[in-house]
Design a protein that fits this description.
The chain has five helices and eleven strands; from the N terminus they run E-H-E-H-E-E-E-E-E-H-E-E-E-H-E-H. The protein is α+β, with helices and mostly antiparallel strands. The strands form two sheets. It has a six-stranded mixed beta sheet with strand order 3-4-2-1-11-10, with helices on one face. It is globular, with a radius of gyration of 17 Å.
Protein backbone atom coordinates (compact mmCIF):
# COMPACT_ATOMS: atom_id res chain seq x y z
CA UNK A 1 0.00 0.00 0.00
CA UNK A 2 1.27 3.46 -0.91
CA UNK A 3 2.11 5.65 2.07
CA UNK A 4 1.61 9.39 1.94
CA UNK A 5 5.08 11.02 1.84
CA UNK A 6 5.95 13.14 4.85
CA UNK A 7 8.96 15.39 5.43
CA UNK A 8 10.48 17.63 8.05
CA UNK A 9 10.62 21.20 6.75
CA UNK A 10 12.18 24.22 8.43
CA UNK A 11 12.89 27.91 7.99
CA UNK A 12 15.65 29.84 9.73
CA UNK A 13 16.76 33.47 9.56
CA UNK A 14 20.41 33.03 10.55
CA UNK A 15 21.06 36.80 10.87
CA UNK A 16 24.32 36.51 8.91
CA UNK A 17 25.47 34.01 11.59
CA UNK A 18 25.58 36.76 14.25
CA UNK A 19 24.14 35.51 17.51
CA UNK A 20 22.42 37.25 20.39
CA UNK A 21 25.88 37.58 21.96
CA UNK A 22 26.89 39.69 18.88
CA UNK A 23 29.44 37.07 17.84
CA UNK A 24 29.53 35.77 14.26
CA UNK A 25 29.80 31.98 14.41
CA UNK A 26 28.60 29.96 11.39
CA UNK A 27 29.57 26.74 13.20
CA UNK A 28 26.80 27.40 15.74
CA UNK A 29 24.30 27.81 12.92
CA UNK A 30 25.45 24.52 11.40
CA UNK A 31 25.00 22.82 14.78
CA UNK A 32 21.44 24.15 15.06
CA UNK A 33 20.71 22.93 11.52
CA UNK A 34 21.95 19.50 12.59
CA UNK A 35 19.61 19.61 15.61
CA UNK A 36 16.60 20.33 13.39
CA UNK A 37 17.18 17.41 11.01
CA UNK A 38 15.14 18.92 8.17
CA UNK A 39 14.67 17.40 4.73
CA UNK A 40 13.96 20.85 3.27
CA UNK A 41 15.39 23.97 4.88
CA UNK A 42 15.05 27.63 3.87
CA UNK A 43 17.69 30.00 5.23
CA UNK A 44 17.46 33.78 5.19
CA UNK A 45 20.38 36.22 5.54
CA UNK A 46 22.76 33.45 4.52
CA UNK A 47 25.24 35.89 2.92
CA UNK A 48 27.05 39.03 3.93
CA UNK A 49 25.05 42.10 2.97
CA UNK A 50 27.81 44.23 1.42
CA UNK A 51 31.00 43.82 -0.59
CA UNK A 52 31.14 40.54 -2.49
CA UNK A 53 28.21 39.26 -0.38
CA UNK A 54 30.21 36.20 0.63
CA UNK A 55 28.26 33.14 1.69
CA UNK A 56 28.59 32.31 5.38
CA UNK A 57 27.93 28.59 5.58
CA UNK A 58 30.23 25.71 4.71
CA UNK A 59 28.06 24.14 2.02
CA UNK A 60 30.39 21.18 1.50
CA UNK A 61 30.24 20.33 5.22
CA UNK A 62 26.44 20.53 5.18
CA UNK A 63 26.40 18.15 2.23
CA UNK A 64 28.96 15.77 3.74
CA UNK A 65 27.70 15.71 7.31
CA UNK A 66 23.93 16.23 6.91
CA UNK A 67 23.17 15.29 3.32
CA UNK A 68 21.78 18.77 2.62
CA UNK A 69 22.40 20.06 -0.90
CA UNK A 70 22.18 23.75 -1.78
CA UNK A 71 19.70 24.49 -4.57
CA UNK A 72 21.60 26.31 -7.37
CA UNK A 73 21.00 30.06 -7.50
CA UNK A 74 21.91 33.06 -9.61
CA UNK A 75 24.29 34.41 -7.01
CA UNK A 76 26.12 37.74 -6.93
CA UNK A 77 29.85 37.68 -6.13
CA UNK A 78 30.64 34.96 -3.59
CA UNK A 79 27.07 34.73 -2.29
CA UNK A 80 25.50 31.34 -1.66
CA UNK A 81 21.91 32.49 -1.94
CA UNK A 82 19.64 34.86 -3.85
CA UNK A 83 19.07 38.08 -1.91
CA UNK A 84 20.29 36.05 1.08
CA UNK A 85 17.78 33.21 0.51
CA UNK A 86 19.40 29.76 0.50
CA UNK A 87 17.40 26.57 0.05
CA UNK A 88 18.82 23.22 1.21
CA UNK A 89 17.27 19.86 0.33
CA UNK A 90 17.95 16.20 1.09
CA UNK A 91 17.24 13.35 -1.36
CA UNK A 92 15.45 15.61 -3.83
CA UNK A 93 15.81 16.22 -7.56
CA UNK A 94 15.84 19.92 -8.48
CA UNK A 95 13.99 20.44 -11.76
CA UNK A 96 14.03 24.22 -12.13
CA UNK A 97 14.64 27.26 -9.93
CA UNK A 98 12.82 30.54 -10.50
CA UNK A 99 14.46 33.71 -9.18
CA UNK A 100 12.06 36.50 -8.31
CA UNK A 101 13.15 40.05 -7.54
CA UNK A 102 10.52 41.45 -5.18
CA UNK A 103 9.38 45.08 -5.38
CA UNK A 104 9.70 47.44 -2.44
CA UNK A 105 11.87 49.95 -0.66
CA UNK A 106 14.62 47.41 0.13
CA UNK A 107 16.23 44.89 -2.25
CA UNK A 108 14.39 41.61 -1.60
CA UNK A 109 13.95 38.35 -3.44
CA UNK A 110 12.42 34.90 -3.41
CA UNK A 111 13.37 31.47 -4.73
CA UNK A 112 10.80 29.12 -6.26
CA UNK A 113 12.29 25.66 -6.62
CA UNK A 114 10.41 22.87 -8.39
CA UNK A 115 11.47 19.55 -6.88
CA UNK A 116 10.80 15.85 -7.13
CA UNK A 117 10.97 14.33 -3.66
CA UNK A 118 9.90 10.80 -2.74
CA UNK A 119 8.34 10.54 -6.20
CA UNK A 120 6.20 13.60 -5.64
CA UNK A 121 6.35 17.02 -7.30
CA UNK A 122 6.73 19.92 -4.86
CA UNK A 123 7.27 23.65 -5.33
CA UNK A 124 9.11 25.33 -2.45
CA UNK A 125 8.98 29.12 -2.21
CA UNK A 126 11.68 30.55 0.05
CA UNK A 127 11.29 34.26 0.76
CA UNK A 128 12.38 37.10 2.99
CA UNK A 129 9.86 39.94 2.86
CA UNK A 130 10.50 43.59 3.63
CA UNK A 131 10.17 45.56 6.83
CA UNK A 132 7.57 48.03 5.50
CA UNK A 133 3.90 46.90 5.31
CA UNK A 134 3.36 48.53 1.91
CA UNK A 135 6.42 46.74 0.51
CA UNK A 136 5.28 43.39 1.94
CA UNK A 137 1.85 43.78 0.35
CA UNK A 138 3.44 44.41 -3.05
CA UNK A 139 5.78 41.48 -2.54
CA UNK A 140 3.04 38.99 -1.69
CA UNK A 141 1.10 40.11 -4.75
CA UNK A 142 4.25 39.62 -6.85
CA UNK A 143 4.59 36.08 -5.47
CA UNK A 144 1.00 35.29 -6.39
CA UNK A 145 1.42 36.80 -9.87
CA UNK A 146 4.44 34.59 -10.51
CA UNK A 147 2.70 31.47 -9.24
CA UNK A 148 -0.20 32.13 -11.61
CA UNK A 149 2.20 31.65 -14.56
CA UNK A 150 3.47 28.24 -13.40
CA UNK A 151 1.98 24.77 -13.49
CA UNK A 152 -0.18 23.61 -10.61
CA UNK A 153 1.66 21.39 -8.13
CA UNK A 154 1.80 21.09 -4.32
CA UNK A 155 3.45 24.21 -2.93
CA UNK A 156 5.11 25.17 0.34
CA UNK A 157 5.89 28.79 1.18
CA UNK A 158 8.25 29.53 4.05
CA UNK A 159 10.61 32.20 5.25
CA UNK A 160 10.91 35.35 7.31
CA UNK A 161 7.74 37.13 6.20
CA UNK A 162 8.14 39.96 8.75
CA UNK A 163 4.42 40.00 9.52
CA UNK A 164 2.77 39.04 12.79
CA UNK A 165 -0.81 40.11 11.99
CA UNK A 166 -3.56 37.89 10.58
CA UNK A 167 -6.36 40.47 10.35
CA UNK A 168 -7.83 41.58 6.99
CA UNK A 169 -5.26 44.40 6.80
CA UNK A 170 -2.32 42.00 6.96
CA UNK A 171 0.24 42.27 4.19
CA UNK A 172 -0.05 38.48 3.78
CA UNK A 173 -3.71 38.67 2.78
CA UNK A 174 -3.02 38.17 -0.97
CA UNK A 175 -1.59 34.72 -0.16
CA UNK A 176 -4.91 33.48 1.24
CA UNK A 177 -6.22 32.60 -2.24
CA UNK A 178 -3.67 29.80 -2.49
CA UNK A 179 -2.16 29.11 0.92
CA UNK A 180 -3.45 28.29 4.38
CA UNK A 181 -1.28 28.72 7.44
CA UNK A 182 -1.40 26.49 10.55
CA UNK A 183 -1.12 27.69 14.12
CA UNK A 184 1.61 30.26 14.57
CA UNK A 185 4.96 29.74 16.28
CA UNK A 186 6.60 32.67 18.03
CA UNK A 187 10.18 32.87 16.75
CA UNK A 188 11.42 36.42 17.40
CA UNK A 189 13.38 37.57 19.30
CA UNK A 190 15.21 34.34 19.99
CA UNK A 191 15.81 34.87 23.70
CA UNK A 192 12.21 35.84 24.49
CA UNK A 193 10.10 35.00 21.42
CA UNK A 194 6.95 37.10 21.15
CA UNK A 195 6.30 37.51 17.42
CA UNK A 196 5.55 35.00 14.65
CA UNK A 197 7.63 36.69 11.95
CA UNK A 198 8.76 33.39 10.45
CA UNK A 199 5.97 31.53 8.68
CA UNK A 200 5.09 28.38 6.76
CA UNK A 201 2.06 27.97 4.53
CA UNK A 202 0.95 25.19 2.22
CA UNK A 203 -1.79 24.69 -0.35
CA UNK A 204 -4.71 22.26 -0.34
CA UNK A 205 -2.45 19.53 -1.78
CA UNK A 206 -0.36 19.48 1.39
CA UNK A 207 -0.78 19.56 5.15
CA UNK A 208 1.50 21.05 7.79
CA UNK A 209 1.47 19.52 11.26
CA UNK A 210 3.47 19.94 14.45
CA UNK A 211 4.55 23.48 13.61
CA UNK A 212 6.78 24.84 16.36
CA UNK A 213 9.82 26.95 17.07
CA UNK A 214 12.99 24.93 17.53
CA UNK A 215 14.01 25.98 21.03
CA UNK A 216 17.30 24.75 22.46
CA UNK A 217 20.05 26.46 24.44
CA UNK A 218 22.06 26.75 21.22
CA UNK A 219 19.22 28.08 19.04
CA UNK A 220 18.51 30.81 21.59
CA UNK A 221 21.98 32.26 21.09
CA UNK A 222 23.03 31.35 17.51
CA UNK A 223 20.77 33.94 15.79
CA UNK A 224 18.25 36.63 16.74
CA UNK A 225 15.51 34.40 15.26
CA UNK A 226 14.57 30.90 16.34
CA UNK A 227 14.14 28.36 13.55
CA UNK A 228 10.65 27.07 12.91
CA UNK A 229 9.93 23.52 11.82
CA UNK A 230 6.98 21.32 10.90
CA UNK A 231 5.99 18.07 9.25
CA UNK A 232 4.76 18.36 5.67
CA UNK A 233 2.43 15.67 4.34
CA UNK A 234 1.71 15.66 0.60
CA UNK A 235 -1.39 14.36 -1.11
CA UNK A 236 -0.13 11.51 -3.28
CA UNK A 237 -0.41 12.06 -7.04
CA UNK A 238 -2.50 9.74 -9.21
CA UNK A 239 0.71 8.36 -10.71
CA UNK A 240 2.07 7.48 -7.30
CA UNK A 241 -1.19 5.82 -6.28
CA UNK A 242 -1.09 3.65 -9.38
CA UNK A 243 2.24 2.12 -8.43
Amino acid sequence: MYQTPEFTVASYNIHKAVGTDRQRDPARIAAVIAEIGADILALQEADMRFGNRAGLMDLEALRRDLGLIAVPTESVGDAHGFHGNLLLVRNALVEVVHHLHLPGFEPRGALMADLQIAGQPLRVIAAHLGLLPRSRARQTRALMDKLSTLDDRPALLMGDLNEWRLDPGSSLEPLADRFAGPALAQSYPARYPLFALDRMMTCTQGELTDLMAHVTPLSRIASDHLPIKARLRLTPSNAALAK
